[in-house]
Amino acid sequence: MTHEELISIVPLDVLGAATPEEASALAGHLPECEACSRDHQEYAEAATLLAIDLQPVNPPADTRARVLSATTTDEGSDDSNLIEAAQRFRMKPWWLATAATLFLALWGWRELSVRALHEKVIEQDAEIRRLSESNGQLSSHNEKLNSEMSEIASPQTRTIALAGQEVSPAATARVFLEPGRRRAVVFFYNMPVNPGDKSYQLWILRSDSPKPQSAGVFDVTPTGQASITVENLPVDLPIKGLAVTMEPRGGGEQPTNSRYYVMGKS
Amino acid sequence: MNPPIKGSPLLAEVAKGDVPAFEELYDRHSGTLYALLLRILNNADDAQEVLQEAFVKAWTGASQFDPSRGSEIAWLISIARSRGIDRLRSRNTRSTREDEAGREISTHSGFVVKNTGAENAIRAEADHAVRDALLELPEAQRRALELAYFEGLSQSEIAERLQEPLGTIKTRMQLGMKKLRERLQAFR
User: Fold this and answer.
1) Average pLDDT in the A43-52 region?
2) Are the CB atoms for A163 and A264 separated by under 8 Å?
3) For the packed helices B155-162 and B166-187, what is the interaxial angle rounded to 10 degrees?
């Protein structure tokens, strides 16, 4: 290849457009030819005008930070390691962004889960307290019932059976008189359901007086059942019998009629 | 735009490990290099990555810079372009659509480097000279140079791309480069 041919290759070589054979021939020639070497430098400088002609564009700020970090993180390493490090740093924001997003999502999910669980625990604590109170009440009630059952089953307890009368022949009642506790417990069955403006009233028929004595008023369930407890019965009360009438709501001091629903003698 | 200023002391200071000088080097030239890499790679992520590689190379290899062989910016451009073309060639896929998008980024971005004071005046003069030189080039010559410089095509590949005889392309490139060189010499 002649010198003129080599000179003509120079502008192509600085652009990287020479063929491999041309580039190789020129590379061998340049160290030997000062003029061609100078031409090569000047053409290379001229080629940069193509880049300088471009409107500069500021790279993102994080690129600057990554570039400058290379001056403090890998000063002692070689270029290839630095470039690898640079590539790693280049990936870092993506990784960090992804990791941060995942972390925030997981943290948010965890927070929501913790809050939901916390609220559930509070609700369950409240439910446990409510059930404990209910259980306490039931236990107390159970103890009371057991006590009452014991009292009712006691040999000292007297039992009086009340039978249905003409207006309610299917009705029955059973009275448990507990003299020791001055108390009577009465259970009613198959009683007609009383109207809203009426109440049943239990009367104690005394042997020492023609006037019955009120022992209390009550309503029955839709199935005709009821139970009442009469407290503070007078000691040695001469009970001849018991009877029930239907009275205006709230009852009265004396029966307004003689239509007994149940009645029995002691 | 950055002028082809020769004999800048920055790289000599960078070679001594002067971090502030390196920061100034980055601030002075990163806009031009990034625009170049966007033009070559048509991809902002790749351009940022290669820009970082180029400056890391400048940091570690500043002592290799010889001011008698060219300007600081020419040296940096040479590093960035070389790595950008290497990256471009290593990519298997490249579409025309991406090319156009990249050009849009490089030529119409609002993130323009701002200079001040006397430096602005010097660079304005340099910009004017550069632009004149390039404007004086016939479109065919300029196109051939751009395909080689920004896309890394060989003369035969350019001939094939432009559907022109290889000899014609070679002549256009030689004439175009000669004009750029003359313009640069005139500016100095």
Assistant:
1) 87
2) yes
3) 110
ipTM exceeding cut-off 0.90 for this assembly: no
Q: Looking at beta carbons, which residues of chain B come within 8 Å of A83?
A: 53, 56-57
Residue A44 in this model has a pLDDT that exceeds 70 = yes
Decide if pLDDT at B6 tops 90. no
Structural contact between residues A67 and B9, judged by C-beta atoms closer than 8 angstroms? no
Mean pLDDT across the stretch B38-66? 90
* DSSP H or E run through A115: helix A79-153
Residue A199 CA to its chain's centroid (Å): 47
Edge-to-edge order in the sheet of strand A239-248: A213-218, A198-206, A239-248, A262-265, A158-164, A172-178, A183-189, A226-230
Touching B: A residues 35-64, CB under 8 Å: 41-60, 63-64
Which residues have C-beta within 8 Å of that of residue B158, sequence separation ≥ 6? Answer: A17, B144, B147, B148, B164, B169, B173
Distant-in-sequence, close-in-space partners of B99: CB < 8 Å, separation ≥ 6: B42
Is B6 in a helix, a strand, or coil?
Answer: coil
- Is A201 within 8 Å of A227 (Cβ atoms)? no
Mean pLDDT, chain B, as a whole number? 77
Q: Which chain B residues are Cβ-neighbours of A75 within 8 angstroms?
A: 17
> Tokens for A202?
């239990």
Considering only CB atoms, B35 lies closest to which of A45, A48, A57, namely A57
Collect all residues with Cβ–Cβ distance below 8 Å to A58 and sequence separation of at least 6.
B30, B31, B34, B111, B112, B113
Those residues with Cβ within 8 angstroms of residue A171's Cβ, 6 or more apart along the chain or in another chain: A163, A164, A165, A188, A189, A190, A191, A192, A224, A261, A262
Task: Please give the DSSP secondary-structure letter assigned to residue A217.
Answer: E
Confidence of residue A125 (pLDDT cuts 50, 70, 90): confident
Rounded to 5 degrees, φ, ψ at A10 are: -50, -55
The pLDDT tens digits of the residues spanning B106-140 come to 433 333 333 334 444 445 555 555 566 677 788 88
Confidence of residue A102 (pLDDT cuts 50, 70, 90): confident
3-state secondary structure B135-179: HHCCHHHHHHHHHHHHHCCCHHHHHHHHCCCHHHHHHHHHHHHHH
Q: What letter represents residue A57's amino acid?
A: V
